Amino acid sequence: MSGHNKWSSIKHKKGAADAKRGKIFTRLVKEIILAARDGGGDLSTNPRLRTAVQAARGANMPKDNIDKAIKRGTGEIEGVSYEEITYEGYGHGGAAIIVDTMTDNKNRTVAEIRHAFSKYGGTMAESGAVSWNFEQMGLIEIDATGLEEDEVMMNALEAGADDVQNDDDVFSIYTQVAEFSKVIVAIENLGYKINKAELTRVPKSTINADDVAEKLLRLIEKLEDLDDVQKVYSNFDISDEIFEKINLD
Fold this sequence. Notes:
Largest sheet: 4 strands, antiparallel
CATH architecture of the largest domain: 2-Layer Sandwich
CATH topology of the largest domain: Alpha-Beta Plaits
Distance between the termini: 23 Å
CATH superfamily of the largest domain: YebC, transcriptional regulation domain
Number of helices: 10
Number of strands: 10
CATH class of the largest domain: Alpha Beta
Order of helices and strands: HHHHHEEHEEHEEHEEHEEH
């Protein structure tokens, strides 16, 4: 399992997603605003907006919040202006880290990220230093309850997906970015329940981080806790034995 998926599993088991629902909503709203600003408010012609709205619905965001975010993006409602900035760095054991942000004050954002890297044992790097080791892909997660892996695999591949992974209670379907929207529609038409649909960064190669796992995860957790941070990716892998022992409470 790649590092970013392992970290997602840890947060899921700790119940962090529910505990931070307010922050999750804030991040989803930012994504909807930017998607609508750049591609318009029509979901049928704006794949990024469709993906953002799908994620918001999956998180049970009220429809009124979604509609207002779209209107802020299209300019129908006044609001804060955000820009996307990506930062790169290294964590313990040489793990590559990418931090995607949306901010209305880039000076504040870079200062907070630099502080988190420094305080928790990482180092920031120049643009391009680690991003070469990641491929942007579409990720669609569907509820695995009652489904046969072979059937899901066959249907997803026929729809244009690249790969399907069985991650505990969900199937993770990976696609090329160009095929992402088409595969979402096909999965929906097959009647599968989509838990999440988003663009992600998948590491081309991973490193074992058993010896520094807790320190590395602490750094990533602190980066994710920053208000301007949307997503954090890394290329670490840890063994199940170490994974079960980690306690970040």
